[in-house]
Amino acid sequence: MPRVIDIALHNLHQAAGIGVAGNFAGHLEQAGEAADFVNVVAESAQAPKGIFPWHMPGRDGYLGVFPLSADAITWPERDHDVDLQIEPEVGAICRLTYDAGGRVTAIAPEAVAAFNDCSIRVAGAPKISQKKNWAPASKGLAARGFAVADLDPAGGLATLRIACFLRRDGVVHEYGIDSPARGYSYAGSTLVDWIIERLANQQGSPDTPLEPVGQYLRDAGCPQQVVFGIGATRYTAFGEANYLRPGDESIVIVYDERVTSPAAVAAAVQAGDEGSLPEASVLVQVVRPG
């Protein structure tokens, strides 16, 4: 059984933040982002579309802002009519190994936790990263997670599930479809090898939303640690149609299905008792004005 551990977010300020786009079938279409990738050629129909940065330590501009919070989401200051959407994911904290030229040669998972790749929905944004990091507390990572040695669907992810809810004015809505973490399109060594290849070869171009993330790591001095958001699950009908508002609570839970059932998770959230769930990584963020 995965061991529950504490995660100190303040120790991750020098970690890179990288996301995987399109690693759960149907999510990009629901999020209205599939058209952004029309010029991206994936290696197969099941393959993710690419990787994107959401934090690079020491970098100028928005990517240099540390965005992780375990309890809050900051509303974007620039627009109070913005569409802000939860993206419930497994976040994987990993160690990176580089060669002499600064290319990543190995990725070693250390822990996984509930992760919210919270996103601004802007049609046709030039780069994915422009929708991902707008202020401190624009991303979420739970303060407790699971120690893992791999991201394999038969190993570290085998018994974990991802659930997502929105609590608004005291009413709880199921926001994401409760899904097994082993249901990711790419996981385990397939995912790790693919990320290493993308870090080496993804260059980005003006006609795609992708960027040269491997070069960004070299520019950042080859950070030894990274937090990967390995992909968001599908939304419920409510989640697909409803965006966040100030005062909402975003709830993402990664839990062990051998200990707790989806019904028990939903009941705990309805009762406002999600913090007591056993063998669970629980991320509750209040949406605060910018």
Describe the structure in your own words.
This protein is mainly β and 290 residues long. The protein has a single domain, classed as Fumarylacetoacetate hydrolase, domain 2. Strands 1, 2, 3, 4, 7, 8, 10 and 13 form an 8-stranded mixed β-sheet that branches. A hairpin with a 2-residue loop joins strand 11 and strand 12. It is globular, with a radius of gyration of 17 Å. The termini are far apart.
Write a short abstract of this structure.
This protein is 13% helix and 35% strand. By secondary structure, the protein is mainly beta. The protein has one domain (3-159, 184-236): Fumarylacetoacetate hydrolase, domain 2 (Alpha-Beta Complex), CATH 3.90.850.
Which features does this protein show?
Fumarylacetoacetate hydrolase, domain 2; globular; 15 strands; mainly beta; 290 residues; 5 helices
SSE diagram, text form:
Elements: E1 3-6, E2 16-21, H1 27-30, E3 50-55, E4 68-69, E5 72-74, E6 84-85, E7 88-98, E8 104-116, E9 119-120, E10 139-147, E11 160-168, E12 171-180, H2 188-201, H3 213-219, E13 225-232, H4 237-241, E14 249-256, H5 262-270, E15 280-288
Parallel strand pairs: 2-13, 4-10, 5-15
Antiparallel strand pairs: 1-10, 2-3, 6-9, 7-8, 7-13, 8-10, 11-12, 11-14, 14-15
Q: Using the coordinates above, name the CATH class.
A: Alpha Beta
Roughly what is the average pLDDT, rounded to an integer? 92
Q: Regions with pLDDT < 50 over 5+ consecutive residues? A: none
Annotated CATH topology? Fumarylacetoacetate hydrolase, domain 2
**Helix count from the secondary structure assignment:** 5
Strand content: 35-45%
Percent of residues in helices = 10-25%
Give the tally of structural domains.
1
Order of helices and strands: EEHEEEEEEEEEEHHEHEHE
Shape: globular
CATH architecture: Alpha-Beta Complex
User: Which class do the helix and strand fractions yield?
Assistant: mainly beta
Largest sheet: 8 strands, mixed
CA radius of gyration? 17 Å
